[in-house]
Amino acid sequence: MSGPGADDPAPLAPAPAAVDGFEATWQRWRLPMLQLATLLIDARDVAEDVVQDAFLGLHRRWVDVDNPVAYLRTAVVNGCRSVLRRRLLARALPPVSAIPHPDAASAVLVSEEHREVMAALRRLPRRQQEVLVLKYWQDLSDEQIALTLRLSASTVRATATRARTALAAILDGPQ
Amino acid sequence: MTVSEVDAEQRLIAALHATADAVHASDDARLDGTWGAGAWSGRSAASRLSSQRRLAPAVLAAAVVLAVAIGLAVRWLPARSGHRSPTPAASAAPHPPKSELTVRAIAADCGLRFSPLPTGTRPAHTAAEVLARYRRSGLQGNSAVIHVHAAMMSDPVARKVGLPPGPRLMWMIDFTRPAVGRGTMFHLSTGRMPTTGRTAPNNDAGQASSVPSYPPGSVYVGVTLIDDATLRLGGNRISSSVLTS
Q1: Are the beta carbons of B202 and A114 separated by less than 8 Å?
Q2: Is A19 in contact with B204 (Cβ distance < 8 A)?
Q3: Is pTM beyond 0.80 here?
Q4: Collapsed DSSP state (helix, strand, coil) of residue B117
């Protein structure tokens, strides 16, 4: 299995004045970015907002952005962090894993076992979640993850190791 | 890595992909031609963001101007070059495809196997009850229901929704939905099936411009499955092919 980010295309041909270039990026990358955001914050509607924000930011900076995909990925990760930060501030909100999935079709298509694993993932520290999602769903290299999260590659490797250990401990432990 | 870490890694990969696939499937279900997998709409983006009141007024004003410009460009450029119209197909109603064609296209794309109800079999629910359940699910969007019928259904991914994969009495709600963007077309006149199914996200990088646009009036064909015994949703399938007359 390989995720959608493993082999980023070369930076799309810059056509700042053309709607087509941006629209092609939108059509090609909207769904992968929506999936990434949903995996990071587990709330489909909020994920859509994050992705729209990212694309709107890209649209504003289309002339200046060399690698739209890298820009989008970083913008989505940062947007998800902001959402999670706001959730932490709003203590009245239920924890992420307790928020019912708003989408009926998604709810019926994800099995209980997978939901348990995703719930375990949510219990990890934010950075560990990000590294695992980017590594195992987007299939990014340590260097690409480092670029996205603004970390060093060695930090990414260490974080991934700790995250795997912690995830295994949660999954093996009493439910 | 320890054995449990390897196991956790495998389970995580499976869960991530299943969750992402569910997003993909529900994204198809919610496709509305504007915020779905269709065309970018800067106008909608601006109105959505303004409703969140998170943009500075100057930025918002710029976004609105940009949105209007994009909206005009998207509306006029395709018309001038003979490409697709972004207007929802509600105003350019397609010919409703025959249900047999719809089901055949879906079956080919999704691996569904179905057969007529055995003589004497009576569904537990009526078509009206099934339609009411469908409307409550919020999956309808801008779909046009063309046929509701019961059949014995085998679905290779039924386990994902907690249903047995073997033959089971399911209701099938055939629908069409306006198709926007580019992709494979199923020609209604010739009955020729597309040779490729849905492509993985990785496989279509940079290919968008080389795939022909859907002509105006094209529709996706889809089917929503509802279990007769429990009225549980059994999946929402949209063919990667598009019917065009």
Answers
A1: no
A2: no
A3: no
A4: coil
